[in-house]
Specification:
The protein has nine helices and 19 strands. With 380 residues, the protein is an alpha+beta fold. A five-stranded antiparallel β-sheet has the order 1-2-4-3-12. Strands 5-6-7-8-9 form a five-stranded mixed β-sheet. A five-stranded mixed β-sheet has the order 15-16-17-18-19. The termini are far apart. The structure holds iron/sulfur cluster.
Amino acid sequence: MTTWEIKGWCPGALRPMQSGDGLVVRIRPPLGRLSPAQASAIAQAAQAHGNGIIDLSARANLQLRGVTETSHPHLIDNLRAHSLIDPDIETETLRNLIVTPFRDAETTQLAATLTAALTRMPSLPGKFGFALDTGPRPVLSGASVDIRVERGEDGRLILRPDGHPLGQPVTDLATDAIAMAHWFVANGGITNGRGRMAALIAKGIVPPNCTLAPAEPLPTPAPGLHPDGALVALAFGQMRAETLHALAALNLELRPTPWRMLLLVGTTELPAIPGLITDPEDPILRITACTGAPACPQALGDTRNLARLLAPHLAPGQTLHISGCPKGCAHPTAAATTLTATGPGHDLIRNGTAHDTPSLRNLSPQAILDHLKAPNAPHL
Ligand code: SF4
């Protein structure tokens, strides 16, 4: 039994998390970007010290899977040589920052300022996070964070507590962000070491001077070419090390996003690399599937093989959530259709969560497929 099995915190590289396929080592890219050399080092480390599988998390971090207790120290040494490792667990835990992939030089400077300020924050819950969303319009509104730096309608910086529609004007980013974190602590935001800003705001407790509205947020971008470069998606946010090697060979800066996509900075061409999705109409993008068996120890069945089997047969616009157990990690809220693994098969739930009452029980993959292929079949 190792102390890494403690739950209720976000894993990092120095403090990995045990999973069904070994240790999960989460790398938080400094300032939300990777140089080609860093991307190449991660791909190499994933092959040498893990099982070669790399996840892109909902907080724009990279996770190496299949690491062992023996290979972990060597992995850390390799990554440290490429400036991808914090000096200690405490610093790593505090560096919970998502930076918009669409940015100018000012945003990169602000990211450095905020990163330095994070080491001077009061003691905060492990999942407490920040978003630096200072492109012309916010794009990180769907990301799970607690304090957001955005631009107001007039272009000035604002600091907005998650869950509240308005923010404070920023005078000095580091000072103001630390002050808002202290306000959160002082106003009862933490209970038993846990707590989120939106929950505190929902109680009607709001920081002072929140008077400025953010600029109108943009919808989540689709894969394809954008003014800042090419946005490429990964099925279920996962790739093999070979794909990251090929990306590194393009010699471009990579910016991980919380949308299970990577921005290839500055290119005007979509790359043709196996494992990347560049077509926004690819039906696999309409399926949300958690890790499932065998990599998740709690899983009662497969998720992603089933997703690949079903994707070509989805009706236009149809979405699907496939969960390895009733916990529903990948889509905790209700979905139009959910398939939850049960062991013998998958339960089908309409307009509910992975643990709601199913309308059909223990379907085999073939039974689900037959249903989809049947002439005039209603949507699942
Ligand atoms: S929903 Fe269940 S099977 Fe899927 S990742 Fe979460 S705990 Fe594992």
